[in-house]
Amino acid sequence: MTRLLDNHLAGRWQAGHDAGAPLFDPVLGTELARVSGAGLDLAEGYAFARAQGGDALRALTYAQRSAQLARIAEVLQEKRDAWYDIALQNSGTTRNDSAVDIDGAIYTLGQYARWGAKLGAARCLADGDPVKLGRDGSFQSGHFLVPQRGIALLVNAFNFPAWGLWEKAAPALLSGVPVVVKPATATAWLTQQMVAAVIEAGVLPPGALSIVCGRPDGLIEALAPFDLVSFTGSADTARAICAHENVLRHAIRVNAETDSLNSALLGPDAAPGSDAFALMVKEVVREMTVKSGQKCTAIRRVLVPRERAAAATEAIAAALAAVKVGNPRNDAVRMGALASRAQLAAVRAGLAALQSEAQLAWAGDDADLVDADPKVAACVMPHLLKVDDGDASKLVHDVEVFGPVATVVPYRDAGHAFTLARRGYGSLVASLFTDDAAFAARAAAQMAHAHGRLHVVTPAVGKTHTGHGNVMPMSLHGGPGRAGGGEELGGLRALAFYHQRSAVQAPPEVLAKLAEGAAPWQGGTG
Ligand code: NAP
Q: How far is the CA of 280 from the centre of ligand 1 (A)?
């Protein structure tokens, strides 16, 4: 049996009380380690985090906590090679794909450290200036954001074991809120090792950073008033957490990032041969293949003018055909494995469901896998599907296949395209490919209510745009409806989730005293 990875709770390393769940190399099929959270005293661990970690963090200023984030980024940077090695083994990703997770995590930590330093010696945030409540101004109302006095329980998905932890922990710790992370079991190794490195480096006070692995009993039951949950994963699990009796009883704040049927929209102006058309093809192929399509933001639906559907399908298929899939240890391979055989089965089931109403336009052949045995590896070739009638199709707008799969959907006119994009009933992101600024602005205004982010690519930004699926800390991450209704990132605004906003109604001299210890809450994006 492989080694059991410890949990860090109540300021000490603790082994789970059973043999644990195995973690595998998704290419070779070998067992790598085990995780277990069985028998952990979560109530004790959460209480320790609230009291020891929370008190110690809140005793610091934003600037001091931002220095801790900067130090965490340094600690992670120093061991970068080790993280890449773990990702290669446990996530089956190529070096470029591992970078999205690992370097993305370090970059996001660094960015929050830079923003936090600007908040200086403050210990709370002032939301605007006080306003008069009476005529003479002798009694006023000022809004302040104060750090919440609970833990932030981070329940994460398997696809981003590094970034998924740190993109949430950065705003939480900067806010003065201790973190307990529960990584997804399949890829928990990287998260656990990063937490171990940061704890070993002594960057944070005891109780500020804890990790519980596997599926410990009472994860949600042990939450208490003022605790917070930030969840990433499937809509079903998000629903179960939000509907949990303990969460309802204490009105525990939950931020949920769930699944999403994101789209790319080719503008009516973008004919085959145009730069906008080529940029759309490049981005769709990138989104389908980066991390083998296991990104919550990946393009699942490609909306194109009806008369250009055939050309778009052909161009995307031709580019996909050049992508080598298989064992990322082979330098020729551009797309590695899915995270597990369970994910492979889920992708195959999703493909079968989609093909009940969509036609297969192009699929790679498993015989072309490089250095990977299809009977063992969790590798799947890209699949491009197409439908003739996007209105009649239901599953295309509803079934998220979490792999290298997208469907080309034709539209009649701009209004029809916007309607089809909205059929995702709330998505994280849609991208627009056009050389028509007026159309792009109209589309963004029409589609924004159903999307957390709109990514407009014109030929002028063909080389400089940050990528449809790339989540930058400067921009909001999250989306309405099906996407979970959450908001993460987006500059210092993300700190709001970890603070309580409170109105203080008082004479001006009291508000002035309070404001001395507050930094202006920019509420913006840095
Ligand atoms: P999942 O089953 O919902 O798992 C997500 C996390 O929840 C894992 O840590 C899982 O632990 C845990 N979990 C599952 N059931 C639980 C319960 N009853 N109580 C407490 N925790 C529980 O999701 P998944 O299928 O592995 O992840 C893929 C999904 O995540 C995709 O649909 C994708 O779209 C979505 N996703 C969304 C975003 C975003 O930002 N919007 C980002 C990435 C992924 P175990 O691993 O131990 O089961």
A: 30
For 41-56, what is the mean pLDDT?
98
Tokens of 360: 């297969």
Residue nearest to atom 27 of ligand 1 (CA): 233
Atom of ligand 1 nearest to the CA of 484: 41
In the Cβ-directed half-sphere of 402, how many Cα atoms lie within 13 Å? Answer: 21
Give the pLDDT confidence of 249-303 residue by residue, as tens digits. 999 999 999 989 999 999 999 999 999 999 999 999 999 999 999 999 999 999 9
Tens digit of each residue's pLDDT (9 = 90 or more) over 297-320: 999 999 999 999 999 999 999 999
Quick one: which atom of ligand 1 is closest to the CA of 183? 9
Ligand 1 interacting residues, C-beta cut-off 6 A: 155-159, 182, 184-185, 215, 219, 232-234, 237, 240, 257-259, 296, 400, 402, 428, 484
**Partners of 430 in the beta sheet?**
263, 454
Radius of gyration of the chain (CA): 24
Which residue's CA is minimally distant from atom 9 of ligand 1? Answer: 184
Measured in Å, residue 203 CA sits from the centre of ligand 1 at 29
**Catalytically annotated residues:** 257, 296
pLDDT digits (tens, 9 = 90+) for 156-171: 999 999 999 999 999 9
What 3 state SS string does 428-465 have? EEEEEECCCHHHHHHHHHHHHHHEEEEEEECHHHCCCC
pLDDT at 522 over 80: no
